[in-house]
Amino acid sequence: MEQKNDRNVFIYHPDPIATGAFQTGDAICDCCKSPTSIFYTGPFYAKDSDLIFCPDCIKSGVAAKQFQGCFTAPDHCDHIGDPEKQEEICYRTPGYYGIQQEQWIAHCGDYCAYRGEISYHNLTPELLADFKATWNDRPQQIWNLEQVLGSLGLAYEGYLFECLHCGKHLLYAQRD
User: Fold this and answer.
1) What 8-state DSSP symbol labels residue 46?
2) Residue ranges of the domains in the chain?
């Protein structure tokens, strides 16, 4: 039997192995019943959420449809007024775990690519400049940016996103 191990390109989650959304190892996809060497370990919101999916079944939307679930809740996506892009995030893109409910953020009228968790020690001058330039673009951010940056990885958990259009990096933060 041929083993599925292609890593599909997920526009909004370009490196899901690096972010921990996928793991490598031998598994059987609960959706297509095929062997896979890459399988999903991120959140799935459905009646049965303890499932293993291969990248193909997530990318095609079959996993979400077959098990009537989503990888990111629709009400936890920034509103951009494009239902097709929201469906791509919710039903065909690997999600990520947050300490509370994760949020998929948008910039330049489109959803951003999720790049992973970020802590104070990972901050670079480029990231700091981008965060300062984009922080006030996000009305949901109720905290002071300097306070968040100083406590990133301690009192606040940070999630790094990158705008697919302007290339700026955005920070989504949750309080511990």
Assistant:
1) S
2) 1-96, 98-175
Structure pTM? 0.91
**From the CB of residue 39, how many other CB atoms can be counted at a distance below 10 Å?**
24
Rounded Cα–Cα distance for residues 125 and 118 (Å): 14
Pick the more confident residue, 146 or 169: 169
Q: 102 and 158 in contact (C-beta within 8 Å)?
A: no
Rounded distance between C-alpha atoms, residue 64 and residue 61, angstroms: 6
- Let me know: does 59 contact 8? Beta carbons within 8 Å: yes
pLDDT of residue 176: 77
Is beta strand 110-111 parallel, antiparallel or unpaired with respect to 113-118?
A: unpaired
For residue 1, pLDDT beyond 50: no
**Averaged pLDDT, 87-99:** 96
